[in-house]
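Input record (one chain):
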Amino acid sequence: MKKMFLSAALLLSAAAQTVWADTVFSCKTDNNKYIEVQKINRNLYEYSFGSAAKKEIAIRNSKADLLGRSDRWQGMGSGRRATMKFQNGEFMYTVWTGFDSVTHTESSGVVVERRGKEVARVGCTPKTAQANFNDDDFSR
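The corresponding structure, as predicted from the sequence alone:
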């Protein structure tokens, strides 16, 4: 019994590490929803929004499409910002994370646009964002 418990614990630990390895971005919002970007494979990413139990929206875009639309750690004044822009028809979902080097504050969230006009903006609850926008996600 003890061996089975230990084996199960090790498997769960390995599974949790595997999920994190594929997570590019995640955070919780003030209304207990989650914003996530998962790396499905080398060439496919998924944006999702919803509760822990159910995704309300899930959009998959190719890496090539994301590279053509997204910004890689660009500096603006005292801050740096990175985005991943997912398109679904006439809607654009821009997941962003930023850091202000003067105030040492981070902010993240998603902006939803329809035909170029902002229709929604959802910020992440402070200190819940886990961003892993690394160079592999922004290189060909």
